[in-house]
């Protein structure tokens, strides 16, 4: 939770710095975070529960997020919906909000993946590579899938940050579309080596 909060704060600091480029105000960003954060947590948990239903023994287990079990896909879906509703009610550009949000997602996801390291989760299959990750109780090393995704997201953030400042960016929503493509491509590759890959 400390790492997740740190990721949110870093993403907010970045968003405040670039908000004028997207014609958004500090209030717009704060409101979006206030509504989006709980929606993301609920969405992440629901997505995980739906696809891991057999691993829950009672209804109350669904609420025990401290035992792990958040899926980023659910968080992104929930934030997309929440941001759409918020933008419509506030009469601001939804696509501009998602452009800024996408860069914030990459910051948060880059840092957030390190929570998986401390929880010893989201690792890959067996490997003997020099940078393998050792897990207590395992006699072999595994791919540090969390690290691969963290580095992929950092690279994506750097590329999209500079793209967003360049003359190549012409339309609202472009950064959001590129984020979805970049993140999707990374996950498509990394999921193949995850030991705990979700069904969908």
Characterization of the model:
63% of the residues lie in helices and 2% in strands. The protein has a two-stranded antiparallel sheet with strand order 1-2. Strand 1 (133-134) and strand 2 (141-142) form a beta hairpin. Helix 4 packs antiparallel against helix 5 (145-165). The two termini are 25 Å apart. With 200 residues, the chain is mostly helical.
Helices, strands, pairings?
Blueprint: H1 2-18, H2 26-51, H3 72-90, H4 94-119, E1 133-134, E2 141-142, H5 145-165, H6 174-190
Antiparallel strand pairs: 1-2
Helix pairs in contact: 1-2, 1-4, 2-3, 4-5, 4-6, 5-6
Proportion of beta-strand residues: under 5%
**Overall number of strands:** 2
Shape: globular
| Spatial order of strands in the largest sheet | 1-2
Q: Count of helical segments? A: 6
Describe the sheet with the most strands.
2 strands, antiparallel
Extract low-pLDDT stretches.
Answer: none
Describe the structure concisely:
With 200 residues, the protein is mainly α. Helix content is 63%, strand content 2%.
